[in-house]
Specification:
single chain; 466 residues; mainly alpha; Amino acid/polyamine transporter I
Length: 466
């Protein structure tokens, strides 16, 4: 219990102290008009109240990461809490703040434009293709997962739920942001927060031992290596490239730059707390990794969520908890497709608010998502994990170039960028989707590539100063 409370306290201190440092380094300025004010079109650009923007940002970035990812991360034992806390403060919070505020400074643009401007034009089309494919992959995952959960909950066929979800995605992708997202998503976010904290209260009330085997060794039953796998598995609860695709949506609705820390950095810290809770629930309920692994293998992460929820909150409360997770997935899926529409239209269309143009792009991106939904979810999820952290790494490098060009302290982004470069390279060298090298060789290659990139960056920065 003390470890959990200390972790939450560290996250809050990270927001108050390190979040303030990041804000000052970036140089937030309320005298600058934000895109919501200067470019208001009442479709994608429009000022929304601060509390709405925060709750929408939190719901959009959460996805299944702080729930499913945290449950899978719990297999490694209490050591997972270190990555959630340190990752949220020094990597995820910095990543989300920089992605959101760079977008605010660049007229609400997508990460693709930022990559082009600060890392070179040659990288634009590569990253545009990669990120569009990543968003379609993510949208397919966030359609298939809730469809499976709804099918289990209701007894109706999976494909009918999938059709209904994609139908909803089409509307949410097409309509102005205040019609569905701005109106209902704050309520959904409050539901998720309420249910999650209700389960935490019950956990305290039961007097359950939070961490039966309280040591920080690798407790994964299959002895999977912590580095790099844990850093890819626990994504949205610590650092996620998906957040960089969502932050520009709210960058187009932010009224003042000074609110960026609460909305972008603060939403990441809130998500980190949710991930802490679900990691703790997974360890405490199953009394360790072996039984948790058996539950995941038999019923999947969705089944684990359902079992824990119904045990702690009763039948009705359990169903409510499962519904909140389903909503969490669906609401992130539709904003993934909306982000794909905006990313493509930024480069292909001049009149981005035209209904016919929005219809065309929305139909194209949703068709891609539907095509991906015919593949095995497990296979898609495997590729999604690596692609997600690769996007985060690229955005952190872009933020480093941004800070260097503006002569600001770039180490706040360069260090996490270098670390995640090592993670992503090691993962693709080691994992079955990559080159399947031994973990020792994969780690050496990952560290060499990361160190080389960081040294080249610093050398170039020093030359620029001279």
């Amino acid at each position: 219990m003390l470890l959990f409370l200390s972790s939450v306290l560290l996250l809050l201190c990270g927001y108050l102290i390190y979040g303030t440092i990041i804000e000052r380094i970036f140089g937030a300025d309320d005298k600058r008009p934000t895109p919501a004010v200067a470019l208001c079109d009442n479709v994608d650009f429009m000022p929304l109240s601060d509390w709405r923007v925060f709750l929408i940002q939190f719901l959009n970035i959460a996805g299944l990461g702080p729930v499913f990812g945290a449950i899978l991360g719990a297999l490694y034992g209490p050591v997972a809490l270190f990555w959630i806390v340190l990752g949220s403060i020094f990597a995820g919070g910095v990543h989300d703040y920089m992605a959101g505020m760079m977008s605010v400074r660049e007229k609400g643009c997508s990460p693709v434009y930022l990559v082009e401007k600060y890392m070179g034009r040659n990288t634009k089309w590569i990253f545009l293709t990669f990120m569009t494919g990543f968003l379609l992959l993510l949208g397919a995952v966030f359609a298939m997962s809730p469809a499976h959960m709804l099918s289990s909950l209701s007894g109706h066929e999976f494909h009918w739920w999938l059709i209904a979800i994609f139908g909803y995605y089409f509307l949410a992708t097409l309509l102005p942001i205040d019609k569905i997202i701005g109106r209902f998503y704050p309520l959904f976010a409050l539901l998720l927060i309420g249910v999650t904290f209700a389960m935490l209260v019950v956990l305290f009330a039961h007097g359950t031992e939070f961490y039966p085997k309280l040591n920080f060794s690798n407790q994964h039953p299959q002895e999977l290596p912590i580095f790099p796998l844990m850093f890819v598995t626990i994504a949205c609860g610590a650092l996620s490239g998906f957040h960089a695709t969502q932050s520009p949506l709210m960058a187009r609705c932010l009224k003042n730059e000074s609110k960026g820390r609460a909305i972008f950095y603060g939403a990441m810290i809130t998500e980190g707390i949710v991930a802490l809770i679900w990691t703790t629930l997974g360890i405490a309920f199953y009394h360790g990794s072996p039984d948790l692994l058996s539950a995941i293998q038999s019923a999947g992460p969705g089944g684990v969520v359902s079992e824990i929820s119904q045990n702690y909150l009763g039948h009705v409360g359990g169903i409510l908890a499962v519904i909140s997770v389903i909503i969490l997935s669906i609401t992130s899926g539709d904003t993934a497709f909306r982000s794909a529409r905006l990313t493509i239209s930024d480069y292909l269309l001049k009149n981005k608010t035209s209904l016919s143009h929005r219809l065309l792009i929305s139909a194209c991106v949703l068709s891609g998502g539907i095509a991906l939904s015919f593949f095995d979810l497990t296979v898609i999820w495997t590729y999604f994990g690596w692609a997600n952290q690769t996007v985060a790494t690229i955005v952190l490098w872009t933020a480093s170039f941004y800070l260097r060009r503006n002569q600001r302290f770039y180490w706040i982004t360069l260090l996490p960028a270098g670390f995640m470069t090592a993670v992503c390279i090691t993962y693709i060298m080691y994992d079955k989707i990559g080159f399947r090298l031994p973990i020792s060789w994969s780690s050496i290659v990952g560290c060499i590539v990361a160190a080389t990139c960081m040294i080249a960056f610093v050398v170039k920065a020093n030359r620029s100063k001279k």
